[in-house]
Amino acid sequence: MSQSARINLIRAITLVGLWLAWEGLARSGLLYRGVVPSNFSVLAAAWKLLTDPAFYPHVLRTSQEVGVGFVIGAFFGLALPLLIGRIRLVGGVVDNYVQVLAPTPKIVFLPVLLVLFGVDAGSKIAMGAASAFFPVAVETFAALRQVNPVLVNVARSFNATLWQSITKLDLPSMAQPVLSGMRLGLGVAIVGVLLAEIKLSNRGLGFLTINFYNAFHIPDMYAVLLIVFVFAAVANALISWLSRALSKG
Amino acid sequence: MKPIKLILSSLLAGAVLAASLGAANAAEKIRVANSQKGIWATTFILYAEESKGFFKEAGIDLDILWTNGGADTQQAIISGSLDLGLNTGTLGVIGPIAKGALLTIIAAAMTGSSDIFWYVPANSAIKTFKNTDGKSIGYSRPGSSSYSLALDLAKAAGVKPKYVSTGGPAATLTQALSGQVDVSWAADLFGANELIDGKICRIAVGNDVPGVKDQTVRVHVANTNFLKQHTALVKKFLATYQKALDWAYTDPQAIKLYAKMNNVSPALAKKVRDDNYPKMAMALRPIGDFKTSVDQAVALKRLDAPLTPEQMKETLRYVDELK
Amino acid sequence: MRTSTLLSFAGIFVAVSAWHATVAPGWVSGYIVPPPLEVWLEGVKLVRDGSILPAFLLTLSQTMAAIAIAGAFGIVCGWILYRHRILGLAYETWLGALFSAPLILFYPILMVVFGRNPSAIVAMGALASLVPVILQTRAGLLGVRPVLLSVARSFNASEAQVARKLLIPAALPTLFTGLRPGLIYAMINVVAMAYLANFGGLGFLVGELYDRFDIPGMYAAALFTIVMSAMVFWGAERLEVWIQKT
């Protein structure tokens, strides 16, 4: 059997095994009623959601918040390093700040954002932006350091303006890592927005999630999360495809 | 360039004209924070609006955000992201108002507390509040009436339990039945079916607290800037609110919608409504026994010092002014 | 002191001054953005009244417990995926996808399963850091230079000996490198769940201060959390460097 066939076999067996294990746990009654629901009930709930027109305003709301938040966060994540990354000393210091702050639990800023931007879409967008900023900034700073210094000197010796430097030198050589940063940024932006919606909102997929949980409609809660995971995976795949397409062209 | 400029400027002019026309006819929007959707006291205005459209008729576009209560409502109003906060705990608002937050009390929402109760799962060893020493007691959110009442009940029983913020009644029921909290709170018709089926037992009611019957435990508040800029609108809102209240106690349609939302029979709904929410308890004024609320705030360290009589009068000034 | 370190501190000073300058003239409500001095004073008060340090210790201990569990399971799984190449290849992409999955969204389920107590939070942290540890462990083991393995085998070393005398010492530094992203994910999720579920350490404290309308205190606690977590990660990095040297 060829290797790829064996791999597929392993994956298929694993999937079936997981499905059965889950189903078994669901029906065993070991855990509190329904906290692990049957696969079928989750799929049925997902179908019900997808065919319910009232579901889509929530999808739209979350997508808008993620979209706007991500664009704002990614823009600043890109702009900050590009504009000051090469300034002697200052660039390095700011790079340091960004790296130190990047792995910290930014959820603690959510109450601050709620106070600053209110309880409506503003705080969700702000959370998305704050989340997306860091991976993009970290990758951009790193990529900037990787740009061939010879090319940088050549550009300087030709008295290239900052704008020329950015568009003709930095961006083309940084496309890959920056896109990778954006992929990560989109992922954390989605999480950030959802968590903000879970904490306080009356619309959106995060709101639906916590609402279903509060009413103990667990299959529906899993269904929303399933749809969210699929959505995030698709977005992820799109950016990967884009990054591959760009590297070829 | 010229034709484009012409087109753009006429589009702009048209848009401005349309907007001004629209604005002239548009209803005035009020963004409202309300809590615990489904209980009579907070939701009757929804039933009224659905059936009779009082607010629409009065030219008010009501936009309601349903929160878990307490601080969630209060913070939304203070930050100005919403304009009015309905049915929020008196205890919770005293602190921020004294600290200068942009929050103003505009009316009483609920005086006395016949509607909030605490329960345990049927197989629990706890029978009264006296058994709750060291156990966990649920309440909605800090700053809510369920919080202040829980504290009062524990004090009256002479026990020192742990307090857990469990959110709304539905979330709390989930936590109760899955053993996450020992004593849980609910209000009004929540848990009615479980009570009937014997899955849960009530152990205390808000009015068990001595003196609470005359105390206004929940109030309606407004963002201070919004109130000052739109005083007439807020006055109109309160008048319409009163109209909706009067309707809700006379038209059987209100009971029908209330019963439907809570999944119980209209007969049970009417009985529970009449027991829990005598119309007098929902009068918009006066603010009953404000002094006790202030004293409680001091005891809970939400106020550094009690308010002077002048300060109390100033805090409640708008309640009469908006009549 | 190196210029860059000096500049870093200068930068903080500039940021705080800018903050003060924005708030002082009253363009923004002092309630929404309190002046830095007020935040500092509230922070000191929080330390004095014993709220913040115990909260930090609780968060730290929950994080450590989480990474210990994730480390134990994760290193073993990572080893298996390394040892049985085919499994590693089969699960690689799945693990990659799980790596960025927002597992925190399942926190309510953990609360029902474990109850409203610290084990739920530790479980969340462990769950969230499991995949990073597995991936890093496997990557670390794969990175051990193959020539070393061949040399060991040519001496007819048994599997256990190869593991003990060669793989583990060679991979140890990378194992620690594997634990660091795990540490980060564990702490992030521990704090997040404490905030969302309203119990626990620092995450809970920040939420509580918001609920008590102690806005300066809330800013202080949030900043404290950021600084403390940054220091924990920096400490872990120092530890890792020291281990690699020895």
Descriptive notes:
The complex is a heterotrimer of chains A (249), B (323) and C (246). By secondary structure, chain A is mostly helical. Chain A is 81% helix and 0% strand. Chain A has 2 domains: 32 residues; 144 residues, MetI-like (MetI-like fold), CATH 1.10.3720. The longest helix of chain A has 38 residues. Chain A is globular and about 70 Å long. Chain B contains 15 helices and 10 strands. Chain B folds into 2 domains: 194 residues, D-Maltodextrin-Binding Protein, domain 2, CATH 3.40.190.10; 98 residues, D-Maltodextrin-Binding Protein, domain 2 (3-Layer(aba) Sandwich), CATH 3.40.190. In chain B, helix 2 packs across helix 11. Chain B is an alpha/beta fold and 323 residues long. In chain B, 48% of the residues lie in helices and 20% in strands. In chain B, the strands form 3 sheets. Chain B has a 5-stranded mixed sheet. Chain B has a 3-stranded antiparallel sheet with strand order 8-5-9. Chain C has 246 residues and is mainly α. In chain C, 83% of the residues lie in helices and 0% in strands. Chain C has 10 helices and no strands. The mean pLDDT of chain C is 85. Classes of the chains: A mainly alpha (249), B alpha/beta (323), C mainly alpha (246). Chains in contact: A-B, A-C, B-C.
Short description:
The complex is a heterotrimer of chains A (249), B (323) and C (246). By secondary structure, chain A is mostly helical.
Q: What is the topological layout?
A:
The complex is a heterotrimer of chains A (about 250), B (about 325) and C (about 250).
Chain A: H1 3-28, H2 39-50, H3 56-84, H4 90-101, H5 110-117, H6 121-146, H7 149-157, H8 162-199, H9 205-214, H10 218-248
Chain B: H1 2-25, E1 28-35, H2 40-52, H3 54-57, E2 60-67, H4 71-78, E3 84-89, H5 90-98, E4 103-111, E5 116-121, E6 136-139, H6 145-157, E7 162-165, H7 169-177, E8 184-187, H8 192-197, E9 200-205, E10 216-223, H9 224-229, H10 231-248, H11 252-262, H12 266-276, H13 290-299, H14 309-315, H15 317-321
Parallel strand pairs in B: 1-2, 1-3, 6-7
Antiparallel strand pairs in B: 3-10, 4-10, 5-8, 5-9
Helix pairs in contact in B: 2-10, 2-11, 5-13, 11-12
Chain C: H1 3-23, H2 36-48, H3 52-83, H4 85-99, H5 107-114, H6 118-142, H7 146-154, H8 159-197, H9 202-211, H10 215-245
